[in-house]
Amino acid sequence: MESVEASFLGSIKTFLELIRVRNAALSFVGVYLGALLTAATTSHPTIDTAVFYAALSAALIMGAGNVLNDYYDHEIDRINRPKRPIPSGRITRPDALMLAIAMFLIGLGLAKSISTLCLVIVVGNTIILVLYGLYGKTLLGISNFAVAYLVSSLFLYGAAAAESASPVPEISRLTLIITLVVASFFSTLSREIIKDVEDREGDMKKYSQTIPIHYGVKWAKRIAETSTLTAVIVGFAPLFIAPQTFNTTAYLPFTLLAAAVFAAAHTMHETLTQRMLVLGQAISMLAFYAGALL
């Protein structure tokens, strides 16, 4: 009985590791945040069925993309990340592929149940995720921009889900979404470039078109730092363009904290830099939540 329970818990751990549960959770929260900022009402919005389905489908699609990426990158992961589920032998490549397909299909089905626009967004993102898995780092910089778009599109997806049952939002609330999308794009771009810096040893054995390999680590870090700085500057925009219903007093402390985390991130080893950038992104999302709800 204990061995069965241990096996079950081991399978759950493998699944959560495969889908990058932290990223999947952030995807879920990101979609709701996009819906929250787009809501036309000035009262505190609730999670209706459409927004919940959108958030769930985003988490599933993002998770499926991570599984698919591990499926294609199994040889490189033997060098860079040998403890991951596939190179460590905890799950076979065919099983991982079947899991990814199942998650993609469920995510697409949920998006279809919301609206045509939501389905279009998810289909487009699914195609990008598949192409990313197939070609990944063989196209100079393209993979970094693709991931940055995928992450920032979560907020647009949430906005589309909110639109499915809401009147047209105020223009001022659209500016909040645009701000969030741009800041998220550049902070994610920075994180992805730093990830390539960390992975360069394994990438050199198979790939030759990542930014740190092509231009060198020094220039890659400079590009990443510039991207982070851009995200931080854009993050202060709501203090000047937000609608009156957005609480900038609650927003500011979180934004300052996120800026400090982002700044500290680039003083550390690239492994810690990645984690700090993710932390900074999470705090930035909290800032928008605070501004919208408090």
Structural notes for this entry:
With 294 residues, the protein is an all-alpha fold. It folds into two domains: 1-169, Tetracycline Repressor, domain 2; 170-294. It contains 14 helices and no strands. Helix 6 runs antiparallel to helix 7. The longest helix has 28 residues, at 171-198. The N and C termini lie far apart (49 Å). Residues 40-45 have low confidence and may be disordered.
Features of this protein?
Tetracycline Repressor, domain 2, 294 residues, mainly alpha, single chain, 14 helices, globular
The percent range for helix content is over 70%
CATH topology value of the largest domain: Tetracycline Repressor, domain 2
Mind telling me which CATH architecture of the largest domain this is?
Orthogonal Bundle
Listing every helix as H and every strand as E from the N terminus to the C terminus, the arrangement reads HHHHHHHHHHHHHH
Give the count of helical stretches: 14
